[in-house]
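User: Can you predict the 3D structure for this chain?
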Amino acid sequence: MKNLSTLEKLNTISHLIGAIIGILFLCLLLIFKGNTAAAIVGYSIYGACFIFLFSMSTVYHRVTLPALKKFFRAFDHISIYLFIAGTYTPIIILGLKSSLRWLFLGLIWTVALAGTVFKIISYGKYNKYKIFSVILYLLMGWLSVLIIAPLYKNTSLAFILWLVLGGIVYSVGTYFYKDTKHKYSHFVWHIFVLIAAVFHFIAIFILQ
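Assistant: Here is the predicted structure, written as structure tokens:
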């Protein structure tokens, strides 16, 4: 990584750590909590999206060729939608009991698919739509308020607190994501993402 700036080294290393943590989290969930087919499916989707997000971010910040960087930036952005939907998946499958489960699961993955299509259509123009993307990420994440009551009924206060705390950390972190004035703001964003992802893992781990 000698040809990388200090910032890009920090960005690369921070999310490489995230990818490794994602593998560990997936193993922990499957070993200690994968007691039903539904749980295994939910955790596997969550784990795959977790690892994909941090892996794509790592590769994007590691490559230096402009064409490759542009290409992997698309996957870096797309993976955010998939990670949000992937984080929702075990929560919805295991935390909701009525037909609302499938309705909300369909809604979340439809938004993720729409976000993916948007990123493909706007390929190479991401800076132009950066604020819109941030708003869409936040709206997608905070759609959870629509199901907070049934989730609380079926889970626990501890789960809700970790879930909300993770959402708050993500939301505060987006300030640094869109900040272009300070040199290390994107690295700070990476740290917020790591912390929030850990909080949400804790929520998912104590879900059942």
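The chain is about 80% helix and 0% strand. Helices lie at 6-32, 37-62, 66-95, 100-121, 130-142, 148-154, 157-178, 185-205.
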